[in-house]
Write a structure and sequence with these properties.
Blueprint (H helix, E strand, L loop, with lengths): L3 H38 L4 E9 L6 E20 L8 E8 L8 E9 L6 E20 L5 E8 L1
Antiparallel strand pairs: 1-6, 2-5, 2-6, 3-4, 3-5
């Protein structure tokens, strides 16, 4: 037989378990709802080409993405260089292939200087054939830069 104290402790324990289970169920439902919303927002025809971090050496070219598109594709993406300090600078170059040429030609070539409060955004461009995205830190201490590039039809 239980003492009154044991009975109260058992009741409190059951109430706490029921409350926690209800909270965990709500968190799980919220997470599932957010995942469904995110999947609906992301275009079904989009493909992540590169999603990583680069911490290269000064003046060294780092190939972030090299991909060949068989069909016309919209290329877009961004780099997070918000850790750049005054005096830090980098170059981002997007090379594309033309059918008649052996070497790649620069589609986009820009130099960015810190400090930066926003990410570097690669404006969406239609591409076809081989594409190569190169990042080079030109000045300052090498810093990690996160990036994400995508292609969509």
């Amino acid at each position: 037989m239980w003492t009154p104290t044991q009975a109260i402790r058992g009741w409190v324990r059951r109430q706490a378990e029921l409350s926690l289970n209800g909270q965990f169920d709500q968190v799980r439902k919220d997470a599932e709802r957010e995942l469904r919303r995110a999947l609906q927002m992301w275009p079904a025809d989009a493909v992540i080409l590169g999603d990583d971090m680069v911490a290269g050496k000064l003046s060294a070219e780092n190939v972030l993405v090299e991909h060949t598109f068989r069909k016309p594709t919209i290329l877009g993406g961004y780099l997070d260089a918000t850790s750049f300090l005054p005096g830090d600078s980098c170059a981002v170059t997007v090379f594309v292939e033309f059918a008649e040429k052996e070497e790649l030609s620069a589609l986009y070539d820009d130099i960015y200087t810190g400090p930066m409060k926003d990410c570097i955004s690669l404006h969406e461009q239609p591409v076809l054939g081989r594409v190569k995205i190169v990042y080079t830190q030109l000045l300052g201490m090498p810093k990690p830069v996160f990036y994400r590039f995508y292609g969509r039809k």
